[in-house]
Amino acid sequence: MKNCFLVLTLAATLFTACSKPENNNTENAESSLEQEAQILKCENGSTLTAIYFADGDMVAVKIKKDQEKEEKLSARGTNQNGDPFFGNSTYTWELLEDGKAGRLTHKDGSDCIYR
User: Fold this and answer.
1) Residue span of the structural domain in which 105 resides
2) pTM
3) DSSP state of 40
C-alpha cells in the first residue's frame, strides 16, 4: 500500500511538472525601430527627409529628396573619419560629425551637404 501511494505521488508530480501550459506567441517579436524623420536643407535650396531604421541587425536610411521617389540606402561602412555612410546604386549618404548633417552624393558625382 505504501509503495502504491509513493508511485501515485511520483506520477502525479511528474504529470504536473510536465503539463506546463505553453504560450505560442504568433505575433512577430521584432518591433519597428524607426526614428523620427529629419528634414534637412542644402544651401542650394533642396530639401531632404532622412529616416533611420533597423534593417535586420544593421541600420539603414530612407531618404526623399524634394519631389523624387523615396530611396532606401543600406549601411556600407565608415569613412576615414569613422563616420557611417549608406548607399544604393544611385546615392551615397555620408553622415557628418554632428550626427545630423550629411553629404548626399549622386552617382553622377554631384553632391550637397544637408544641415
Assistant:
1) 38-114
2) 0.69
3) E
